[in-house]
Amino acid sequence: MVEHLLTADEAAHHAALLKDLDRWRGEPAHWDRAGRLPEPVIRWCREQRLTGAALPAELGGGGWDAVRTGLLYEAMGRVSASLASLVNVHDMAAQVVVRWGTEEQRRDVLPPLANGSRLAAIAMTEPQAGSDLSGIETNLEERDGRLLLNGCKVFITFGQQADVFLVFAQRAGQSIACLVDRDQPGLTVTPMGEMLGLRAAALGRLEFRDCEISPSAVVGRDGFGLAVLVPLALEHGRHAVAWMAAGMLHEVFLAASEYALERRAFGRALIEHGQVQSLITRMGTDLEATRHLCLAASRALDSGDSAATDRVLTAKYFACRVLEEHSAQAVQLLAAQGALESGVTARVYRDAKVLNILEGTTQILERMLAPRLASAARRRS
Fold first, then answer.
1. Fewest 10 Å CB contacts: which of 113, 131, 163, 310?
2. CATH T-level assignment (fold) for domain 226-375
3. Over 74-94, what HEC string results?
């Protein structure tokens, strides 16, 4: 259990989150079939102020630190990766406004994001720009005294349900970000379904056709988009995804353990078979390692440690890699039960593959981590 790594207050916070979220445990299969979270679930997140938990208290948020926010994602990950993703993408967009928004944006945009009356999503990915965001073609240009946005964004998490989007674009050859309301003329949102995982995350396609943007909606300066704002958003996202993966791994480990203890084959309980013992041992130790890495990343963020970015990258890389490996093994162990479409192991297996793509693929993270780890090793020698 993660509790032995926490202070008493942090452990109590985690226990309260798990208790509150227990009400939704039987619902994720229904959400996946519907392709979205029901409004009562979103309303509950608003009422619990979860969508603003990580925002500064002085701006109307909960003022939660990285450890408590991480524990929220871990608890949500035990229930549904789609549910956790709702809070994650909202927080990614809001944190950019907190750090780089104008006084007007902080005054007008942040309060409804903090209290959950408006949901935010982040729009980076395009048909020709995924891992390499330098390929973004969405364009913000001045024409006849107006700022007009044109382009297309795809696979936008909760694009179907968000009220406002933080959109990354190009302006005069420089990267830029701007806030666009869902009902802004010139913006069309259409559903994107039939996904392998995160089936309840209401993915949307955003098309901008001469969508007029107020100059006051631009966030940060020209050139800030890819150099400053994307890394800030992605660090928050990677921290969240690492903790989500820890919660999901907890669920498949629990399912695999219970099955191995109760199921008998060839005259013995499965747990007595060497291959099963190996699987359970690796899964349990990797879960413990994941929790340590996630907590180290959170504490580094809270302390302002210069190594925080490396710790977040490491936690996301390890957590998502072992989750994909062990969720596949859990499906194999549970056999027909593990392959049931509505079962926990099948859902986590599908979602785990997507988590290894979100906020930087495994290969992108390896590209980032390899020189950092090698340089750190040389410094320590």
1. 131
2. Butyryl-CoA Dehydrogenase, subunit A; domain 3 (1.20.140)
3. HHHHHHCHHHHHHHHHHHHHH
Residue 1 has pLDDT above 70, yes or no: no
Which residues are 181's β-sheet partners?
164
Residue 359's nearest CA partner among 235, 243, 247, 176 is: 235
Please tell me the distance from the alpha carbon of residue 360 to that of residue 370, in angstroms, as a whole number.
Answer: 14
Residues in the chain, overall count: 381
- What's the rounded Cα separation, in Å, for the pair 33 and 199? 8
pLDDT of 337 reads: 80
Give whole-number Cα distances, 2 to 7, 133, 247, 280, 291, in Å.
11, 35, 10, 18, 6
* C-alpha closest to that of 44 among 69, 64, 68, 17: 17
pLDDT for position 241:
98
**What mean pLDDT is predicted for residues 53-77?**
95
Architecture field, domain 120-221: Beta Barrel (2.40)
Half-sphere exposure of 129 (CA within 13 A, CB side): 18
Q: What is the pLDDT of residue 295?
A: 97
**Domain span(s) for CATH 1.20.140.10 in the chain:** 226-375
Question: pLDDT (tens digit, 9 = 90+) per residue, 164-181?
Answer: 999 999 999 999 999 999
- Where, residue-wise, is CATH 1.10.540.10 in the chain? 2-114
